Amino acid sequence: MNRTSIPILSVTSAIGILLSSPATADTVKIVGLGASTCAHFNQEIGENPALQRDYFAWAQGFMSGALIRAPQGVDEGLDLTPPSFPLQEQVDFLRAFCAKNQDQDYMDAARALYRRLRGPKT
């Protein structure tokens, strides 16, 4: 994706992005389905498996936002839907993460998926 095609951010938004750091990232309030705990996700998809699609759509938006927010030179060219890790496998990854980590949030599962898609740091 060409970064020049992204609309210009407002000055306030740009300053917020520039001032963000891992230390302040923990104080950001995440909203939407991703704010749910993995235990809640597990319960909901157990009752209605079709909800996995809604959670996954949230995760895709979350990862897309992380990719757009990444500084120049970081994660450029990252494919969030690589042929080597198709969407169904990503859904399975998120479900397995939450099954093993019920005390974490679904957002943590999405972050783990993003790191997996990034691959090992060289």
UniProtKB/TrEMBL annotation:
Keywords: Signal. Residues 1-25 form the signal peptide. It comes from the Bacteria. This is Rap1a immunity protein domain-containing protein. The lineage of its organism: Bacteria, Pseudomonadati, Pseudomonadota, Alphaproteobacteria, Hyphomicrobiales.
